[in-house]
TrEMBL record, chain A:
GO terms for biological process: fatty acid biosynthetic process. InterPro entries: Fatty_acid_synthase (IPR003965), HotDog_dom_sf (IPR029069), MaoC-like_dom (IPR002539). The lineage of its organism: Bacteria, Bacillati, Actinomycetota, Actinomycetes, Kitasatosporales. GO terms for cellular component: fatty acid synthase complex. Pfam families: MaoC_dehydratas. It comes from the Bacteria. Transmembrane segments: none annotated. Belongs to the enoyl-CoA hydratase/isomerase family. This is Dehydratase. It comes from Streptomyces vietnamensis. One of its GO terms (molecular function) is fatty acid synthase activity. Residues 13-121 form the MaoC-like domain.
From TrEMBL, chain B:
Residues 6-137 form the FAS1-like dehydratase domain. This is UPF0336 protein SVTN_22580. Coiled coil: none annotated. Belongs to the UPF0336 family.
Length: 142, 150
């Protein structure tokens, strides 16, 4: 494990480079295939509306996968992540308009822990709404 | 109807091993648009100290969720899966999942709660490799929403 960020060089409040991740219907179909989660709420608009959703929504696990990229890109080695948890608070609605949705992710160091570890708090937004709650990672730095 | 509290603490038998394929990791990394070479380039992964390509942190969910199916579909438990939404998800990693791993999952019901007619189920999946080494623990919270008018 070789994180490229040194523990001694970060402080509480250090911001990680923010990133935005586009998601279209095609993205969701590709993720369904790769993950094996073929729930129709992620690709079938008629089904999604029938079960009370505004439209097709992204897989929560897709959103979770995108959000941690801000941390793994920063740390260098994805294995630097020792803990990662989220709460799925709002769905990412993905309209069939060729543009889809945007997941905007920012993160900052919230606490310095023992053993070269830090806690990173992650904020994931889509269409002006927070889509993940309690989104936190513990990362072991160099 | 509230779920039976006596299921709390119940552990299900370990799943048959899932063999993690290099191309499956690549497919997953491409699906999330993540170009980190540790997922696709063995040399890049080795430069980071890994013996082979590793999987993105959330990759293992596909395996633990499939294992949780034994709980979700347990007819004795009687969860109404058509009303289930994913509430929380957490992972704690001993090491990353890597290509060639043969992973087995042991699922345990950690908690059952009833809140405003919703059934809330906490499932812990312990993932071990073929040598018995712990790889990752996954905690999945499922919420079965109360039927309308209940």
């Amino acid at each position: 494990m070789t994180a490229k960020i040194a523990y001694d060089e970060v402080e509480v409040g250090t911001e990680l480079p923010a990133q935005s991740f586009p998601v279209t219907r095609a993205t969701l179909v590709q993720y369904a295939g790769a993950s094996g989660d073929f729930n129709p709420i992620h690709w079938n608009e008629k089904f999604a509306v029938e079960v009370g959703l505004p439209d097709v929504i992204a897989h929560g696990m897709f959103t979770m996968a995108e959000a941690i990229r801000v941390v793994t890109d920063w740390a260098g080695d994805p294995a630097a992540v020792v803990e990662y948890g989220v709460r799925f608070t709002k769905p990412v609605v993905v309209p069939n308009d060729g543009t889809g949705a945007l997941i905007e992710v920012s993160a900052k160091v919230a606490a310095k822990l023992d053993d070269q570890q830090v806690r990173v708090d992650i904020t994931a937004m889509s269409a002006g709404q927070k889509v993940l709650g309690m989104s936190r990672a513990v990362v072991r730095l160099a | 109807m509230a779920l039976d509290q006596s299921f709390v603490g119940r552990t299900y038998p370990p799943t048959a091993p899932y063999e993690v394929g290099r191309e499956k990791i690549r497919e997953f990394a491409e699906a999330i648009g993540d170009a980190n070479p540790a997922y696709t380039d063995t040399e890049a992964a080795k430069a980071l100290g890994h013996s082979d390509v590793i999987a993105p942190p959330t990759f293992v969910f596909a395996i633990t969720f499939k294992a949780a199916g034994a709980v979700i579909e347990d007819p004795q438990l009687g969860l109404d899966y058509s009303r289930v939404v994913h509430g929380d998800q957490k992972f704690a990693y001993t090491r990353p999942v890597r290509a060639g791993d043969r992973l087995s999952v042991t699922s345990t019901i950690e908690a059952i709660k009833s809140l405003a007619g919703n059934d809330i189920l906490d499932i812990r999946g312990e993932v071990h490799d073929a040598s018995g080494e712990h790889v990752v623990t996954a905690w999945t919270k499922l919420v079965s929403r109360a039927p309308e008018g209940a």
